[in-house]
Amino acid sequence: MKTTGDQQLVKRINRSVLLRLLRQRGGLSRAQLASESGLTKSTVSLLVRELIEEGWITETSLAPAQGLGRPSTPLQLDGSRRAMLGVEIGVESLRVVGVSLTGEVLWSAEEPLADRAPGAVCGQVAALVVRAHGELAARPVLVSGMGIGVPGAFDEATGTIRFAPNLGWRDVAFQPLMARALAEAGCPSVAMHVQNEADTAALSEYEFAGGEATDSLIFVTCGVGVGAGIVLNDRLFTGLQGMAGEIGHSILQIDGPACSCGRKGCAETFLGARALERQAEPARGGVYLGVVLQNLWTTFNPGALVVGGPSCERYPGILRVARETLEGYAASAGMAAPRVRSARYGLLASAVGAAALVLHHELRPMHAPAVTAPPDESEDRQGEAAPQFLH
Known about the structure:
Layout: H1 3-24, H2 30-37, H3 41-53, E1 57-59, E2 75-77, E3 82-89, E4 93-100, E5 105-112, H4 118-137, E6 142-150, E7 153-155, E8 160-164, E9 169-172, H5 174-184, E10 192-196, H6 197-206, E11 217-222, E12 226-232, E13 235-236, H7 268-271, H8 273-277, H9 285-300, E14 304-308, H10 310-314, H11 317-332, E15 340-342, H12 349-362
Parallel strand pairs: 3-6, 6-10, 11-14, 14-15
Antiparallel strand pairs: 1-2, 3-4, 4-5, 7-8, 8-9, 11-12, 12-13
Helix pairs in contact: 1-3, 2-3, 4-5, 6-12, 9-11
């Protein structure tokens, strides 16, 4: 029997219940937390004390008593003592952010990608992460963990980037390679999570929306690549081997223009940044974005559609044209088009969402972590498929 392990898991689950309640409804007292969670008052009192000591939550000013009795002490997430690091590996640049538990961007940096070889990229990321740790330590805040968003299909089970055509990567054992680079750079040891950059962008909208998070939610990101991050039933929907949401490689035209993935007629050949740069009127790319949104809407019927990415920032007219296109399709079917909104974090959406990966896993302790190969087995395996780990 794994009694100790079981008890630790139960404790983590109970902590996550309290944290999620306070994220949704800040200002609850200990008694209210006990009532809402179904936990005993003594358990809540013990866990609250630990969470305060660790910098997850804080007490605010006393609330007036309801009737007889002592005033209650409201509790809320502490946005001042803990932070999470988020990294976005783009096709042309790197972004790193430090984000508070409440979604405030405390620090950010960006630099051009110097070399697209996997080892070189990991080394450059590690150097930026070391710098970020130093900046946040000076505040001072405690770094709870780090998330990384990558421009390709990431297989959580093996820690492998299966396919990132815009970087020229296939079957790169990324997670162990990144872990080694961080260790060699002298980076402080923290939990590391990796996911596709469109998925992390979706988390920036979902995890930092307070009590207004919409489930389900789809975030479409438009840059050199085009992708969709999908949140369904309080989880990222990543599919088998992380391939869900690769809408840039859905076919919009049979025998259309050649794509970097080897197919023809992919959405990326009409809507990707390189395709838009060749158009006399880039905003007309919004027609294709509207088609993509229409297909996502009729497939998933999400509660929220969010659009962001470099192309939307560079060509603001794209989103307007996309909305008009989507509304036209909806009207033809006698339906009201769903609302499509812009990313609240702008160009930082994927990096902020990568930081949100840390919180996402902390609040869902039953979610299985990714498996990482030992560092000494990870050397230069970008051409070799990572092994499957059986449980």
